[in-house]
Structure formats: structure tokens, C-alpha cells
Amino acid sequence: MPVDVLKDDIGPEYVVELYDPATGTRGFLVIDTMVYGVAAGGVRMLPDVTVGEVSHLARAMTYKFATYDMPIGGAKGGIVADPSSPDRDRHVGAFARLVAPFLKQLVYIPGADMGTSDRDVAVMYEVAGMEQFKPSGLTLKVKDGMPLEDHLTGYGVVVAAKTAAELVNMSIEGASVAVEGFGKVGGGVARYMEKLGARVVAISTIHGAIYNPKGLDVEGLLEARRKHGDRVVLEYKDAERIAKEKIFTLPVDVLVPGARPHVIDKNNAGDVKAKIISPGANIPTTLEAEEILFRKGVLSIPDFVANAGGIIAATMDRMSATEEKAFEAVESNISSVTRKIISQAMEEKTYPLAVAVRMAKEKVKREIEKKERMAAEEIERKVKEKFGV
Fold first, then answer.
1. Structural domain count, the chain
2. Cα 213 to the chain's mean position, in Å?
3. Mean pLDDT value of segment 6-18
4. 3-class DSSP state of 338
């Protein structure tokens, strides 16, 4: 669904269309706000990514940082290319050359996102001549064949779901779970859902979805994914193959949308049967869908609340924290914020996203007003010095 560039009283401050004639690389960089002096967000590589999508994802990052009291603005990059293309390295390098001025001024901090990896981010810093800022340490550690950052982000989504379940007197143990997008985050979600005793009954990739109400073999799926990538859903035998769109309307307790924006909209929200939605992806629901889900009694956790494990992990990395401390930080922060947002929404009798957006916007707008006030005071001071008034 086409999405217009988001524009309101917060941002975006920069919407940059990128083109490299030598490689034919097209892309976008959207910096939602520079109120804190720096902005951060992942770089997405997909053949159909649009500037509208990137702008909404950048805003989601602004809300995420504000929600977790991190003094960083939101941003997002987009490369219009197929990540499986043999020319992907050329596209990454070209994108890096085009955004290098933003990196060199420490205006924009890129990260991995759908279609890109930590290796791609390292290439971006190398191309920009900033090797010292390449990802390193905790978040690049591999645990059980998967980057630790993927573990931590997936674990955060599970923590949010568990906390929400507790607030509605539901147990995650024994709950049925459907996971859209069995990639970086989805694999971590499935693993930690199973560790808590939940039953992962469905997963999807770009090649389709599989469903078994008795439960899927998560470890077997993770092993198959290492061999077959997104084709894992075609290789797994002990499940029914279904259209990937059907994963949103399966009779499950917990639904984890984990791929593209606005996959749940006014057309399918009424058919959602899950009791709880805990997003692994940003902006998976439209506002119309949120209202429909709320009227149906579906508890939808705000995306930037549930999937904040990555930014918490990055913060812990900068602090040279241990793996154990990183998991503790993800659990304590996400459970606390989830409980606060949902409890407030229940008190106001509205859907949690409305509360979370309002709170995040208030924080950012206070900072914008503070910055504007300080700028006005500085201008006044200089005028007085120059003209003696």
C-alpha cells in the first residue's frame, strides 16, 4: 500500500533522495529530527522500498528512542535494490558514498535492517573513512548460530508479549504463537517463545507460510533456515503450507508481525483472531486497524515498545556490558514500559498505541521547544552585545 511522506510538527527535517549514476543505485535517507544533535536508524534494502515507508520508519525510531528516554532522534535509510542481487555490495557501497557527509558529521548513525546486515553497516563506515565507528563487541557476538543482537531483539518482543499477557490474566506458557517473517527478529522470537513454554504454530517468509496447530520444531526450523534461508517454509515437511497473508488471521493467542509496514489494515483487522499482538517489525498496523483491533478486544502492543531490544542492546554494547547484563536490561526496560503503557491505556479505555505516541511526542516536543527557547535567548544575547540594548 503506497504511503505518503509523513510531515507534522516534529519532522522530518531531512528527506534526501539518493542516486548514484555509476551503479544506478537509488535510495533515500530520512532524518526525522535532529533535536538531540544526532539521529539513528537502520538501512533497509528492498526492491520496492519507498520514501514514504522510510519516513514512517524514521518516525517510529524517534518514538522508540523517546519512549526509552534515549537522547537520539529517529532516522532511516532505504536502498531500492534486491538484497539477493549479485550487485548488492555495489549498491551498499554506493549508498555509503552518498550518505558519507551525514556519517562524517556524526549526524546519522546507521544500523542493519531488513535486507541488510552488520557487515553492510561495517562497509558503510569503511567507505566513509570512519572504520573506528564500525559495529563491534557485544552485538556482533554469535550465540547458538545467531547474532546476539537478533537474540536480544527477539527476546524483547517476547518479554512485551509476556507482560501484556500477565495484565489480561493470560499465560504465555502453552500459548499458541504465529510469527510473520522468520528472519533476524523472527528467529529470536520463536526461540524465546518456545523457551517460555509457548507453542510456535506458524511462521512465514517471502516464499509463503507454514502452519501446524500442534506446534513447529523451532530448532529444526532454525537449522533449516541456516541451510535454505527464506525457502525454509518450502523445505519443512511437518506442516500445512498456507498463503503468507493468512498468518494474520490464524486462531492463535499471540501474533508477531515481523516484516513490512501496514500488513494489518482496515481490510483484515476484523479477521484477526489473536488475543495479543507483539510486533517484531515497525508500524505493522495502520491507525484504522488499531481502532478495529481495540473494539474487537485484541491487545496490540505498540511496535516501538515491543521491538526496542536492539537499541537497548546497542546501548549496553557502548557500556561494554556482559551478555547477561544485556538480557537483564532488555527484560527490565521492556517489561516496565509495556506495563506502563498498557495500564495507562486500560485506564483511559483506548488502544495502547494512542497512549504511547502521545507520550513520545510530548517528550520530543518539549525538547524542541527547549531548543527553540535557547536559540532565541542566544540571539537576544548577541543582539544586546552588538548594539548595547
1. 2
2. 28
3. 95
4. helix
